[in-house]
Amino acid sequence: MWQVVGQNRAVSLLERSLERKVVAHAYLFVGPHHVGKMTLALNLAQALNCEATESPCGECLSCQKIASAKHADIQIIGLTTDGDSTEAKSRAEISIDQIRQMQHSASLPPFEGRYKVFIIDGAEQLSSEAANCLLKTLEEPVGKVIFILLTTNDKLLPATVISRCQRLELSPMAATEVEAALISHWDIEPQRAKLLARLSRGRLGWALSAALDDSLLQQRAEKMQGLLDIVNADYEERFTYAAELATQFSQKRESVQEVLTLWLDWWRDLLLVKIGCNEATTNVDLEDTLIDSARVYGLAQIRAFINSIQAAGEQLRQNANPQLVLEVLMLSMPKKEEGILVKYG
Ligand SMILES: [Zn+2]
User: Fold this and answer.
1) b vs e for 16-34, b when ≥16 Cβ sit within 10 Å of the residue's Cβ?
2) What pLDDT does 161 receive?
3) Which residues place a Cβ less than 5 A from the ion ligand 1?
4) 214: helix, coil or strand?
5) In this predicted structure, what is the pLDDT of residue 82?
6) Gap between the Cα atoms of 189 and 184, Å rounded
7) Strands (E), the chain
8) What are the two backbone dihedrals, phi and then psi, of residue 75, each rounded to the nearest 5 degrees?
9) CA of 244 to the centre of ligand 1 (A)
10) Predicted model pTM
């Protein structure tokens, strides 16, 4: 059976093509991080090579080998991460050498299965030479060889490559679906499932990683505390914080966008509490703090600051001066009444 949860549309489309034996020679799976692209790609590789009649069975030798990354005919191509610094990694590309090696391997017949499957993870990171080199392969399909490109953003891929692939979009699930899946498939305790589901933004893979690795929730708690400290801080401290974030931005852009996302969630939650929709909040473990904090601000103040956070995120994406953008954001944070401290937990 297909392991990927919550992607019924993509799964039934693939099932239909397998039944009719009209499998595309190249697929492009598009969707956010942790939404299930790799799981679906591996499931498809299993379905193509499964020894059972109901494929993918998940139990035959072939399915098991693929699940444990030990099948000789299934290869994953992505960024090489051996010993690279974070900075080097953020600039790294999938090289033309990697694609040439893949092409060589694709020219040989399957070793133990029916199909060779090459999964290119993070296809938006193909160097332009690598993408051109790959294009030649996609233009001249070979039997029994399937390419699956995974990407979070297909706008970063050459149109010529996209046009050679069957595109499948994987969307985030509803929080309630993630919650239900965590409880029914993975036996996660309901209160914890609810929190993980809300924080996951519909990406089941993220919720599962966080369920298995407590450090993810711990990091979030630390970041949240940092944000709440700033709410209580004076302008001088806020500017120091803005400068720290700006420095962080020059090293790792993504982490600052993550902070802004946390912040956006927090202020959206305040808005929801303010209008009496406590049930829809993301930070379900901080309900008491949210209720206390919501009393401190007016609805218009909260709305205006949400707009400011969104504007800051957009300006950073458009390469505005990060220190300036973050300082303006700190200045636009609404003032609360004197003497009320906002605390974590
Ligand atoms: Zn099988």
Assistant:
1) eebeeeeebbbbbbbbbeb
2) 96
3) 50, 52, 57, 60, 63
4) helix
5) 53
6) 10
7) 26-30, 74-77, 116-121, 145-151, 166-169
8) -125, 140
9) 51
10) 0.80
